[in-house]
Structures are given as C-alpha cells and as structure tokens.
C-alpha cells in the first residue's frame, strides 16, 4: 500500500504514446458485473469513450502531467493537479458530469466524478484504467435486512495497470494498493466490489442519481448473502454494564472516563450516524454531551429512539431511566456541579 504524497511534478513513467481517445457513442446501460474484464490485455483499457470528455482537452492536460520514467509519478502528478485546481462541492454529486464539466466548473461533487476525471487523465497518459463501483458492506446488510440507513454509502475506485501489474487506486484517499488481486471483492474500507467497467456512463454512476439507485436496489436485492462478510450489526457484545457516549472531543473523553470510573464499559462513542448507533444504546447507559441544557444529539433523533427522554433535561443531574431500560444522562459539561450518579451493577 502506498500513500501518494502531495508533491510537485516529478519525473518518471511508462514510455508509451498517449493513446487516441476512442469514439464510442452512447451505449446502453450495463448490468453490474465484475467478470468481464480481460486483465491479460491491459492495452484494451487505454481508449476513452467519447461520453467522458473532449479528446483534445483531455490529451492536452494529460501530456503536461505524464512522466516517461515512472507510472507512480504520473499518478502523483494527476492527483496533485486535481488537489490544486479542483474544489469539492457536494451539491454537484447528483447529475452527470464528465471531464469537461469538472474542468469547466473546477469542482467535483464526490468520488464518482472525481474518479472519472482522474481515470480519463490516467488513460490518456498511458496507464490502463478500469472503474470499480463498490457499496459499503454495512450498508448492504442494512439494505437487505430492511434496516434504516441515513445514506446510500458507496465508493468508486480505479484499477490501474502500473509497473507491469494491476493495482487498486483510491483517488480521493490518494492511496495506491499494489499488493492487490483483481479477484478481490472486499476492498479497503470494507467495501464490496460489484461492478467494473470501461465506460462510467454506461455503468451508471451515482451522478445518474435516480437511475443509479434503481440499479443498486435491483442488484443488491438479489445478491447472495454468502458473498458478504459477517454482519457485525447482528453480533452480541458479551459484556454487562455497557455504555454509549454521544459527544465531541474533548468532552467524549471525559464522559468515557466517568463511565469507566463508575464501572461501565463504553462500547461506542460517536457524534453522528445516529440511525446506526442510537438503536444499539437501547437498554444501556447512554451519556449525552450537553451544553447549558442543549444536547449535541439532534432532538428529533432522541425523540425517535428514546421517546420522553428529553424530560431528563429537567431532572436532577440530567438523568432519566426509560421504560425500555435505557438510562439517559444529559451531562452538562458547562456546569461544574455536573456529576454521574449511576453506578454499574455487579
């Protein structure tokens, strides 16, 4: 695994001519598959579909970034240019955007258009490239079990042919994994690879938001559970006197210490992803960082998972025990008199 530093344009890489960008027209949407890539013929993955951008613009920028001594430096050059010239704008993530759009607007909306931009530059610079769509394993389990989830959680990687072998590149994380097998289905971040291809528009990226959600729903509705790792959300934590902490640094550290001092073991501390963590806290001690009577957890989430828990804000020491056995403590970190009055049972 190589972390690619943010460095200036070095000098090295693949002595190959800049490929001609293929004119491919608009193709029909693909069904997700990982089995149709011809890894023994990397040269097939140099051509660029015309839906991905203008030949002359891609080739011109790629020529500036390409290094004839090392494929690694070319990748670094491309990532450096993107870091220095493109901004992240999350609201741009829900409509189709190719190289030209990203270049004109000088921004990307997420991993999909970031991956498209990076991929076409690498291809034009002489590095065979394949796009890889993934979904988070935790999201897949939640989806298949009809559990609530706060976001459609996936990621786009690139497979790149560098130094005579296929490697995995995460453009956003600037990580290159050279100890990599294209047959791997579980990728970094516990993400499941389910679709590989040479034409992102035909693959259907999250940029094509509604169509992508429809495709994703259909695919994972049929996916065999045996292909996935164990669903960790169904595990049982075999420890009595569990506690959960909702807070930000440095306050969550204080609340964690208080829980330990009173005989509790903190299973999770968190400051987001409430649909995941709040259900786990049911029946246990739940410490909530609070400032002058205002919890850091949005009130809507507290009422959703712990009805009437907000009554505890008016109780001594901010403590209330609910009918489901959950003890919620709104610990006011701005009040010097605040203390934890709950002690774990043996």
Task: Give the SSE layout.
Elements: E1 2-3, H1 55-65, H2 71-85, E2 87-88, H3 99-105, E3 107-108, H4 111-124, E4 129-136, H5 137-144, E5 154-162, E6 165-170, E7 175-177, E8 186-187, E9 191-197, H6 200-203, H7 209-222, E10 242-246, H8 251-261, E11 265-270, H9 274-281, E12 285-291, E13 294-295, H10 299-305, E14 319-321, E15 327-332
Parallel strand pairs: 2-3, 10-11, 10-12, 12-15
Antiparallel strand pairs: 1-7, 4-5, 4-9, 5-6, 6-7, 8-9, 12-13, 14-15
Q: How does this structure look, described?
A:
- Helices cover 29% and strands 20% of the residues.
- It has helices at residues 55-65, 71-85, 99-105, 111-124, 137-144, 200-203, 209-222, 251-261, 274-281, 299-305; strands at 2-3, 87-88, 107-108, 129-136, 154-162, 165-170, 175-177, 186-187, 191-197, 242-246, 265-270, 285-291, 294-295, 319-321, 327-332.
- The two termini are 46 Å apart.
- The chain folds into 2 domains: 2-227, C8orf32 fold, CATH 3.10.620; 236-332.
- The protein has 346 residues and is an alpha/beta fold.
- It is built from 10 helices and 15 strands.
- The strands form 3 sheets. The chain has a 7-stranded antiparallel sheet with strand order 1-7-6-5-4-9-8. Strands 10, 11, 12, 13, 14 and 15 form a 6-stranded mixed sheet that branches. Strands 2-3 form a two-stranded parallel ribbon.
- Residues 6-26 have low confidence and may be disordered.
Question: What labels would you give this structure?
Answer:
alpha/beta, 15 strands, single chain, 6-stranded mixed beta sheet, C8orf32 fold, 346 residues, 2 domains
